[in-house]
Every structure is written in structure tokens, then in C-alpha cells.
## 1
Amino acid sequence: MNARFDISTLEAIPLPALFVDADARVAGANERAIAIQPRARQDLPLVLVFRHPGLRTAVENCLQSKTSQQTVYHHSEGPQEYRFDVSCASVKDGDGYGALVCFRDVSEVQQLDQMRRDFIANVSHELRTPLTAILGFIETLQGPARDDPAAQARFLNIMSAEASRMNRLVGDLLSLSKVVEVSRMRPTSMVDIDGIIRTALRNLTPLAEDASSTLSYEAPTAGIEIPGDADQLMQVVTNLLENAIKYGGANTEIQISLTETDRDRGVRGPAVVLNVADNGPGIDQIHIPRLTERFYRIDSHRSREMGGTGLGLAIVKHIINRHRGRFSISSELGKGSEFRVVLPKS
Ligand code: ADP
């Protein structure tokens, strides 16, 4: 008499795994498999445990042909979608054969793949638009506008603006990739956050004046030092101020404040809070959760016109995450927007 398949070995498999006997009953399942499908716990026919035709066919084929089978199993838990690569191996069980079914969660790999594809498609699209414009103008300059100095001057101005846009995009892409590269390395040197804000304010005063906007800053009396990367924090402040100036519209009042707090949700220990508030047009609630995604813009046309790349807030979020801080956005249409950055003091 041949030995039966030892159900207890299922627990040793570091994947969700179950054993289906020759009568197509789920004779055993490990805890990981029960977590995906609680019905696998009972000794039930496979058809009552999984309502997934692809999975049932693969197991039945494995039992009948005694050969290995592969399939894909989709599973959802609330809004979360999972994809598993499933392998069914034919294993000896007493005098007959059963199927050892293992599930490998590939949801994250698939998501990353999709993100990478989307990212490349977005970058190509963003670069192609100004490039097409530049190529078009070159053709015009070589042909119809060859002897028209006024048109030449106008086209060269547009070409220069388009080339600057490509330059900004490449600059932002490099910043983003640099931030992502060091995202696991927490900054160790101490930086003067108040000094950084003051420098950013000084740099952006001309831009604010051009937009007839005002920048006001309320700071604590004593200088505060926090562990940080000065260049990156400068970029956070600059991006937030630039956005407030760009999207606030003319005559916006932009209020910046730096305060201290003993505790904040999601940040360990005492922290500093940088707040950038404007009384511009505000942002509709439906956009807020997506604003820090790469290339997400509310109005692409407007953003491009303003010289935006759609990467500013994605860079801000990555830098704050690297500093183990927290970033939040609140806004009310018609009233303005508020961007809050919490950074730990140690
Ligand atoms: P962009 O390069 O387009 O400025 P960001 O990532 O910095 O990209 O911002 C994403 C989008 O968020 C912008 O396109 C804009 O629509 C919106 N936004 C950002 N800051 C503000 C603000 N202060 N007021 C209104 N809308 C804003």
C-alpha cells in the first residue's frame, strides 16, 4: 500500500497551498490558502470552494492527465484586486494521484510593470509635444518664413519656450530619480529649516511680484534645526511656493508659517510644521488624493502654459517620505488651498 500525501507538509510551503485528492475534494490547505479562501478549511469538493472556472479546469486536467498545469487566479478583497499565478502539480496519494496547488501573488509585480509602462508612455508624450512644435517651426523657418525676419523672431521665441519646457521636464525627471534613489537613506545632517524657507522666499519674490501676489512668512523666534537634506528641502519649499504663485492667479495672498508640535499623526516625536496657504481658486476634492501622482494635473493645458511638468508635487511627496515626514493637502473651491508638511525634529 502506498503512503497517503502528508497534509502537514502544506504548512512548510511558503505560499498559499492546498491539496486536492483524486475525488476532486480539497483535502487540506495551509493557513495562507485559508486566508485567501476560508472555505478551503473544510473538506469540500473543489467546485464548492472556488467559483473560478479557470482554476477548476486546471486542477481537473492535472488530476486526469497526471501532468502539471498552470493558470491564473483573480481574487478581490473590497477594492483590492489580487492576481495569483497558480501551479498544479500531480503528486502521489496512496494508490492514486492528487494535485498540489500553489498560489504565487504577482499583483505587485504586475502593478509595478503597469506603472513603468505608464511612466514611459507619459514621458514620451510630454517630450514629444514640444519636440513636434520645434520641428514644425524649423520647417517653417527653412521654408515659408525664410525671408520674414518678424516671423522668424516670433517663431524663435516660441521655440525657445518649448525647448525650456523640455529642459525643465528633464531636470524634474532627474530630480525625481535622484530622490527615489536615496529614498531609503535618511538624512543625518542638521539643517536650518527657517533659513531654507527665507532663501526660497527671497528667490521667489520677483516671480510673486510679477503675478502681483504677496508672500508673508510667520516664523518662530528661535532658529530650528532638523535632520534634513538642505537641497531637497529647498526644493519642497520652492515647488510649493511656485505652485501657489502659478495657480493662485493674480493678487493672491500666500501665507507661509513654520511652527513646532509635540506630536503629529504618522510622525515620530516632536516635529516642525510648514504650512503654505493661498487664497486662490482652490482644488476640487476629487483631485486631491491624486495630486502627488507623477504627471497628474487638474488642467493639463493650464499647467503646461504655466511651465508645469506635472512632477512638482510627486517630487515633494518623495522628499518628505525620505525625511519620514507627512504631507497633506486641504482645499475648498473658491477659497484657496493649504499644503502642510510635517517633518520630525530628530
Ligand atoms: P505642475 O508641474 O503641473 O505644477 P504639480 O505636481 O506641482 O505639477 O501640481 C499638480 C497639479 O496640482 C497642478 O497641475 C495644479 O493643477 C494643481 N495645483 C498645485 N498647487 C496648486 C495650488 N496652490 N492651487 C491650485 N492648484 C494647484
Note: The longest strand covers residues 80-93.
## 2
Amino acid sequence: MDTVPALDTIRGWQEELYRHLHQHPELSHQEHDTAATVAERLRSFGYDVHEGVGGTGVVGVLQNGDGPSVLLRADMDALPVREDTGLGYASTETTTDDEGTETPVMHACGHDVHVACLLGAASLMADSRERWTGRLVAVFQPAEERGDGARLMVEDGLAGLVGTVDVALAQHVLPFAAGTIATRPGPILSAADSMRITVHGRGAHGSAPQAAIDPVVLAAMIVVRLQTVVSREVAPTQPAVLTVGSIHAGTKSNVIGDHAVLELNLRTYDDAVRQQVLDAIHRIVVAECQASGSPRPPEFETFDRFPATTNDEDTTATVRAAFEEAFGEQVTDLDLQAASEDFSDLPNALGVPYTYWGVGGIDPETYAAAEAAGRVSQDIPTNHSPFFAPVVQPTLDTGTSTLVVAALAWLGTDARPSGARPTGAQPTDTPATDASATDVPATDVRT
Ligand code: ZN
Ligand code: ZN
């Protein structure tokens, strides 16, 4: 994408900023320096900036006449991972986590890419105000990895800061070839729920079961019975995973304890299925406690909750058409992802449609070689790996252009006959890419 003149104007500072962010990652809810950098840059571009939204969140608003309002979102947090990429700008930082433990920290999920790309797009949009009208809202959210950053921004009055929004858009750098962009209508990321369940028995000597209500047997019955929820209650066409990942009870072989604690994790792609499984878990646990003669009701505690991400069909079709117009054969289909995200908490709270896409971050030659050898899963590091480090280019150029192209699909005024650019061509005038892609019928863009 060396032919994109507008990208040339930002590439210098953007790459430098990206390496700086990568070298100085911050854990969830601790994104203070990142947020300050974001706020300062947005102000320099001419945005109205709100800081400290939901903790360390930053919102930049650029009003440019009348028109639609587009929300673009990037997440800012890093992970407690010791970087092992060997890069010259690798993180060597450690920090103190919420439990007070010293821990290494790394941008192992690529959120530094997201921040650099959204700042780049915000700059390009500010510099090309003659080509669009409306309102651009740039949301930099904390704590995606904890699943509560978006919700905290909502609870802190995000809606009042951004006004009416027509559409919300977000992207994630993923372990496929850099320069490639992947979209998917409908379900894309799972909802995740973690739950801690405490069930109560009555303790006694191991030789006197008649005096006890054994929480180990009770917990075991619950674990077995929970296996029937997905296999016997959920339709086979609906993906769902229910895992009891932890079970703790008792202290000694000849002592019957008085309680057991189970921790489970649930993944679903559909709100109705999610609620169905949660209801089933509750029903089974309560009933098994009754069956055992448990002296007290069980206790349920949910944590690390992520909403499902389900891309709006029309919004995805609009973005896909704009991408195909701008990037041609670089655009492909994204598989259903088992991971989870909290981005959708923003559009769900604002009551607006959304779409979420992937951009590749792996050196294209490295990826092609791994693919040819049938060794993608062995040779290509995934997000959250200590070896995950997107190549700087074309990752940043692509991830910046996608945001601009997608935003202009709603905001752009520089209408141009669709199909003017040959299929497969690189974008030549980002951010001047026009809104004509929205002219392409939605039925033409999903194959
Ligand atoms: Zn992550
Ligand atoms: Zn991530």
C-alpha cells in the first residue's frame, strides 16, 4: 500500500507510536499512559476529548457538519504475559496486578495495533473533512481482556458524551496474513460466562456417612448432570460449550466436608441459547441440592462475563462492499471464532447495529509457507501467545485504511460510480475512498 499518499502522511509517527505502545504495555484498568497519549493525539487532531470514561477510557468526537454518526472502537489493554518475540521493541516491563503480584506485561493480543490504527484513522479523517459530513466518534476502551471495560464506559455515561450514533464498528488483529481483511455476517464471537457455585452439605467423620450430607457426592452428581445440558437440551444446530473447570471440596480422606465449590465456563453464540443453558444450570444445581438434602440453598456467583458478538447483516454487507471496493481480493470470509469480546456492550447499550472484522497481522510470506506446509497451527503464534507480534506493515496500513473506508461508507460525500476501481487493486486514495460502495447490493457481497 505504498501507493496510498494519505497513509504516507501519517506512517512515520504512527509506526513510532505503535512501537512505543508495544514496548510500554499496560494491564486492564491500568491504561493510564496509553490513555493520556491517545487523548493528547486526539486533541492535536481537533477532536473534542473526554477522558477517564469508565476508568481510563477516552472518547474523541469530531463533528463535521450534518450527517450520520459513526462510532469506531479500539481497545487499549495488554496481558500478563512475558514477551518472547525477540523484537527490538519487545516489552521488558513488569507491573503489579490487581492482586498485588508483580507480573510481566505484554501486548500479546495486539491491542496496540488497534490503538495505533484508530489514531491513524482519526488523523486521516480530521485531515480530509471536505470529503465527509457527520460525526466521527473514536472510542478507546479499557479492559477488554477483563470483559468489563465497555460496560464501565456505558455505565459512566458514554451515551451522553457521543450523542446519537448510527453504527458502531470495530476490528481485531488476528493470526492470518497481514494485508488480508476478513468479515462475517451474523454470529462471530461467543458469549462467555464464568460461574462459581457453592453447594452445602453437613460435615462428619468419614466413618459416619449417616451423620453427613456429603458435598463431594453432591458436587459429583452436579458435574455429571451438567453434561446433559448441551447434549440433551440444546439443539444440535446451536454451538455451546459447558465446562466445569474446577471443583474443590474436603480436606482429608477420613473427613466428610461441609461444602464444595465448582467453577464452570459457558460459551454460546445466541442469547436465547445462553439463557437456556444458564437456566438449566440453575435448575440442575438447585434440584441436586434438594435431592441430597442440602441444608442450605446453593450460592451462584458470576464473573468474567462477555456478551456474544453478532454482526448485523446489513451493516456487515455495507462494510464488506466498501472493503471489496477498496481492497479487492484482500477481502475474505472470517470463520466463527471461539474467543469472546466485550465490544458489543457498546452498540447494545446505544441501541445501534454493529459489525466487527478481522485484519491479518502475520508476515504474508511466513503465513503462506506455514499454510503450504500444513503447519499453521504449529508455526503461527496466536493472540495471547508470548510470540504474537504483528508485523508493523502492512498491518498498520491495512488496519488504518479499513477504519477509514468503513467510516466513509456512512459519512462519505465524494460519490463516485461504483466499480471505477478494478477488482484486486490496492486503495489509491485513502482516505478519499468514497461512499459509493454502499451502492453495491448486499446480495452481491456474500459468497
Ligand atoms: Zn485478547
Ligand atoms: Zn484482543
Note: The chain has two domains: 7-187+309-438, 191-306.
